[in-house]
Amino acid sequence: MCKTKHQRLKQLTIAMGNAVIPKSKQAEVTSYLVEYTCWPPPIFITLISILEVTMYFYYSVDTTDGIQADRPPPTHSPFALNPNSKAEVWRYFTYVLTHNGYMHLIPNIVMQLILGISLELVHKGARIAAIYFLGAFTGALLFFCFDPKVFLVGASGGVYALITAHLADVFLNWSEMPFRWVRIVLFSVWVIADFGFALYSRYAVEEKSKVAVMGHLGGAIAGLFLGIIVLRNLEKKKCETIVWWISLAIFVTFVMGCIIYIIAT
């Protein structure tokens, strides 16, 4: 029984790993995953998801609002990003731990578990954590550049960075990526629905419940470049090295430009 369960887990692990890489690289990754012992497990995505759910319930109990589909953000939280916290740099990363309702929390958790675990099996936790938090950081920068009037909470910056990082890999390996159109359609439907709800939360709800959408945009922009910069290149080509340096230069220039603008204003 245990051996059968282990084999099924191994097959699932291989399927999840191969789901996020092009066909030409699957043999190498499959060879690695066959020897994978599930230790260490995909700890980053698992841990950050547990933390986000825990923080949501903590602030639900800590306030009179309770568990609601959409509620005011936890404005008293030392983790949430607010218009007056420009100098509190830790909030640029920790706001991903706070959410303003379970309709905000659940889509983020589901997407980061589905996509994040597959990516972490292949690329390891450190790379996925870097993309996740740099996506959140970029979202925080855009928040202070363009919409520092409400609160910024939620894991969308990190989640969107994972999505666009994977899509960047899909486009770079378009001819070899299995189910490429299915990926594009499914991710597009999810993003349209999620971003639509975010726009509603920003502009259509009562003032105290408004939440900025810059985390989504910042994460999406960051992921496009970080997917090239950070994810493992299983078969490096000369042209890809050039693309890597161009992506790094654009991303660093973009981030530095945002920082300079924030300091200047």
Polypeptide structure, described:
- With 265 residues, this protein is mainly α.
- It has a single domain (42-264), classed as Rhomboid-like fold (Up-down Bundle).
- Helix content is 67%, strand content 0%.
- It has helices spanning 2-18, 26-34, 43-62, 91-94, 102-123, 125-146, 156-172, 180-203, 214-229, 238-264.
- Helix 1 crosses helix 5 (102-123), helix 3 runs antiparallel to helix 5 and helix 6 (125-146) crosses helix 7 (156-172).
- The termini are far apart.
- 40% of the residues are buried.
- The mean pLDDT is 82.
- Residues 87-232 form the Peptidase S54 rhomboid domain.
- It is a multi-pass membrane protein.
- Keywords: Membrane, Transmembrane, Transmembrane helix.
- It is found in: Membrane.
- Its main location: membrane.
Low-pLDDT sequence parts: none
Distance separating the two termini? 64 Å
CATH homologous superfamily title:
Rhomboid-like
Helix content: 55-70%
Q: Which geometry do the CA atoms define?
A: globular
Order of helices and strands: HHHHHHHHHH
Named CATH architecture: Up-down Bundle
CATH class, anyone?
Mainly Alpha
Counting DSSP E segments of at least 2 residues, the number of strands comes to 0
CATH topology: Rhomboid-like fold
Which class do the helix and strand fractions yield? mainly alpha
| Number of domains as seen in the coordinates | 1
If you average the pLDDT, what whole number results? Answer: 82
For the sheet with most strands, the description reads: none
Supply Rg: 19 Å
Approximately what portion of the residues adopt beta-strand conformation?
Answer: under 5%
